[in-house]
Known about the structure:
Serine Threonine Protein Phosphatase 5, Tetratricopeptide repeat; 8-stranded antiparallel β-barrel; single chain
Amino acid sequence: MARVPGLLLLVAVAAADPEPRVLEGEQALKALDYRAAATAFERACRDAPCTRAQLLRATTGLATALSSLAQTKAATEAFKQLLFISPEWRLPSGASPRIREPFEAAQVFWRSRAAPALSFRPSTLTANAAATQTVQLEADPLGLAARTVLVVRRPDAEQRLDGGARSALGDGGFAMTFELPAALTAPGPITFVAQALSPSGSVLLEATVERSIAGPVEPAPAPPPPVVEAPAPAEPGRALLHVSVTAVFDALNRALAAEALVSVSPLGVFDVALGAVLGAHPGLRLALVGHLPRTYRVSPFVALRGAWHPTVSALGGGLAGGVTLEAGPGRITASVAGELFSAPAAFSAASVLIFLGYELDVPGLRAD
């Protein structure tokens, strides 16, 4: 049972949308089912408010369907309503006499009457003060309009206003006066959009006027300047001491190991590293490394490497080439090396090593 309110809401929303009815009528008209078309068009804007474009489509379709059913009197009334909504509407060329006859009768009706139109009575608009605006429907001999509304548009706001009591004019026309609050009368451009509505709320007629309210226009407040956090000052000079940890993969022998090194930088482009090899055959490592100054974010390097593995009496070394990427308080290192060893048969005499690690600059020890 908890789903029933949601279902009723969906049904209500669907019933309030006139577009499906208008489309239903247009499809029936194409299929030459004039009776079904007339029924759909009659209900479309009677059961729900239509936009002016929807109302024009529905009324055009209704007049066409009724003419095709030879209901000449009803078709004439539909064409009268059509010419009220759009006085400039004309029949397409080649229309059949069955449609032309009620349309011409509707034209004769309107020739002797004032054209329906919305107009604005002159009014005084003072900056930041309440005001009134009167809208007139000049003529409505068919009694189609129930009321008018006024949409007020400002650069930063839009509000729809309902008017007071109707004041009768000639030939079925009427006037309505709208109260504008002071909040809508700030200096600057203002747009009035008047709409004449049917009893269902469908838009029959619409008129627009642009005005301007005199007075100094307050500039929009400038946005506050963006807050930019200053980066932490870098330590002056270059780091003298580094600690690195590197994972090692021996591509020839399918073995993993690690290196932990401490290096010093006697020159800005030269390091001397000493440390331990950890793995199946622990040992010591000595390396001489040449690189670009650390002011470069990415720096290639070459290294002359030596190693001693006392557990297997292996002594050797080789060359490495790689690249560093400055990141945080140090840098990421990646390289490839080839090495040869003098060792017993239990130890491989050659290796191709792939390195990936991180080198940390020890803080506080720097040179100018």
